Amino acid sequence: MLKTPIGRLRATGLIEGVSYLVLLGIAMPLKYLAGMPMAVKVVGWIHGGLFVLFCLALAHVWRSAGWSIWRAAGVFVASLIPFGTFAIDGRLRREDEATKPAPARLA
Which among 21, 23, 26, 13 is positioned nearest to 87, based on CA atoms? Predict the structure, then answer.
């Protein structure tokens, strides 16, 4: 998965997606229901860093894979929606597998 730019984008997207769900599903309720604002601060910083890594990976794929600006923008918008990175992962996986060279055959 980490050997190709799209594979790295997928891995970063999955980790970033989990951090987003933790932020929304655990840290926010802890802040507002249990009076623990530090949960959002810590998880928010982690998520923010992962989101920046995702954006860098997306920019790399956009340039190296020859994606159109609209394709890259669609993936970016999906990353803003909860479960969005999980929803686009299957399509990215298929594209990644289609661009990998076939394994060498022994004669």
Answer: 13
The two three-digit tokens of residue 1, written as one number: 């998965």
Q: Give residues with Cβ within 8 angstroms of 60, minimum separation 6.
A: 5, 8, 9
List the chain domain ranges. 5-97
Q: How many CB atoms lie within 10 A of CB 94?
A: 11
Task: Count CB-CB contacts under 10 A for residue 97.
Answer: 11
Mean pLDDT of 75-79: 95
Query: Contact at 8 Å (CB) between 40 and 23?
Result: yes
CB-CB contact of 8 with 57 (8 Å): yes
Q: Are 47 and 23 in contact (CB under 8 A)?
A: yes
Q: How far apart are CA 20 and CA 50, in angstroms?
A: 9
Question: Does the pLDDT at position 77 exceed 90?
Answer: yes
